[in-house]
Structures are given as structure tokens and as C-alpha cells.
Amino acid sequence: MRQFILDKNPDKSGVVSISGKDFKYLRQVLRAKPGDMISVRLLDGQLKNSTVAQIDEKSKKIILQICADTGLQDEQKSITRGVQAKELEENKTVLKYEYWLFQFIPKAQKFEQIVRQATECGVKYIVPVIGEYSEKSSVNALVNSKAERIERIIREARQQSGSPVETKMLSPVKLDKALIEWNKNDGKIGFVLSERDDTDGDIRKILASGGKFDKIGIVVGSEGGLSPAEVEELITKGLFHAVHFSVNILRCETAALYGIAAVQTAVN
Questions:
Q1: Three-class secondary structure of residue 97 per DSSP
Q2: Which has the least CB within 10 A, 43, 76, 216, 262?
Q3: Rounded to whole angstroms, how far apart are CA atoms 174 and 235?
């Protein structure tokens, strides 16, 4: 774990009480002890250090005390060992661009994996798109699913990766509605991953000719891919660039991670 994301603000004295599943996670999984230090992310996005001030086994509560500074004072006592979330936050390239993932809805288990990986990669917005090849059962499963589960997946992924980006999943929409949301942005450039090899795969060349931008969109198909009409609509109405990678045929969950990584590597 690189950071612990709080679901409530500390009180005026900087004290916050942890209970329920979070108590179990800190106490039983991470084996927190009094005196341990934990990097915590506040509701306003600030990253702070906290000290485990008290553990009450009877009431199943852990009391954290927010420290005055954000630098780790004693790494040996810290639960968040290794590369710290603060170090990741200081890497300005992480926050330089706002990434949007337009994921055409696959099966529920695959979608959850995509959400987890996209969050770890620092994607800001995940937009589930109801496509021509999306199975009706998969769409219904996502539409009817509990938002709490997706929020938990995002939170856990941010805690493990230390991502300073507050990833959000938008409501499932059809492509025309997704493009309306995307086109509200200025300074944007987008890529749609295409199985057709008659498209350009040189992302760096496209980026170099794209002018100034700070928002990057990536479109990935479901198990059935994207229809020609959907690709055309993305290009003409969303101004996305179709790109093809000369690799093996990838599963949608692999393609999403591969595409995000390829674009982030090219842009940085």
C-alpha cells in the first residue's frame, strides 16, 4: 500500500477514527501497530502523514493522528514502505495530462479488471460506452451494479499504486452521449485502438501534430471490438485518431492497459 484514502475528514485536532472494513484492512492485513506511520489522502486531495495513535481491539477502532508535515520521519516505522505516494505526486508528469478512457462495455469481470488497471495508470475519467458489440447482459450487469463496488475497486487501486489522480467512473452511455461529454473539453487529443492495419500506429507523430493539449482520450472496444460505423463516428465527431499496433490480437482488458501505456510512454 502506498497511501490510505480517507472517506471522512479528520477533526479540528487532526484526529480520525477508522472502523469497519478499514479497521480490518489496517489491523489484520497490514498489521498496523501503535507508532506506525501511514501516508493518508484527505478528501480535498492533500497527502499527509499520520501516526497510529491508538488501537482499540474491543471496539474495533484505530485512531490516526495527522502529522504537521508530509515527509516521512521514520521510514522504518512506516506501513507505506518502498516508493512513497509523495514521491509519485512530486513527479509532475503524472498530473500533467488528464486521461480519459472510453471503454466499450465488456463482461463485468473484465470491466472491473480494466477499471483497476486504468486507476493504477492514473486515468482521470473512465467512461463505459454501450456499443454495438457489447452484450446486453454485460450492459445490464454494469447498469444494475452497485456503485459502491466500483468505488471500492478504484479506492483499493489508488491505495496500492499511490496514484494522486482522483479516478472517477461516469455513468454508462451510448457513443453519441459519450462524445458530447468529450467535446465539452478544449485542448484535447484522442486515440481509438483499431484492429485494422490500414491506420497509422505512430502515436508520437500524431501527438507532435496535435497542437497544445492537456486532455488525452483513449478508446477501447469490447470483446467484439468496434464496428466500422463506431470508428467513423469517433473520427468525424470526436476527432479521434485511429491507431493500429502491430502486435498479436489482444483481449479487450489487455488492449486497454496496452493502449494507456503506449500513449503515456509516447507523450512523456
A1: coil
A2: 76
A3: 16
| DSSP 8-state code for residue 166 | -
As a whole number, the mean pLDDT across the chain is: 89
In three-state secondary structure terms, 241 is strand
The cell for 235 is 473520427
Please check whether residue 242 is in contact with residue 196, taking contact to mean a CB–CB distance below 8 angstroms: yes
Strand order in the sheet with 15-18: 4-5, 37-41, 47-56, 61-66, 15-18
CA distances to 22, 218, 220, 248, 253 from 131, in Å:
37, 15, 11, 23, 16
Q: Where do runs of H (alpha helix) occur along 74-107?
A: 85-90, 93-96
Residue 6: CB atoms within 10 A of its CB come to 18
Whether 85 contacts 41, CB under 8 Å: yes
pLDDT band for 215, please (50, 70, 90 cuts): very high
Q: Locate 22 and state its grid cell.
A: 478499514
What amino acid occupies position 187? Answer: G
Which residues contact residue 100 at a Cβ distance below 8 angstroms, ignoring those fewer than 6 apart? 123, 124, 125, 127, 182, 190, 215, 216, 217, 218
Grid coordinates in use for 4?
A: 490510505
Report pLDDT for 202. 81
Q: Which three cell numbers stand for residue 86?
A: 509523495
Read off φ and ψ for residue 103, nearest 5 degrees. Answer: -105, 115
Torsion, CA 178, CA 185, CA 203, CA 169, rounded to 10? -50
What is the Cα gyration radius of the chain? 21
**pLDDT-wise least confident of 35-44, 70-79, 89-98, 247-256:** 70-79
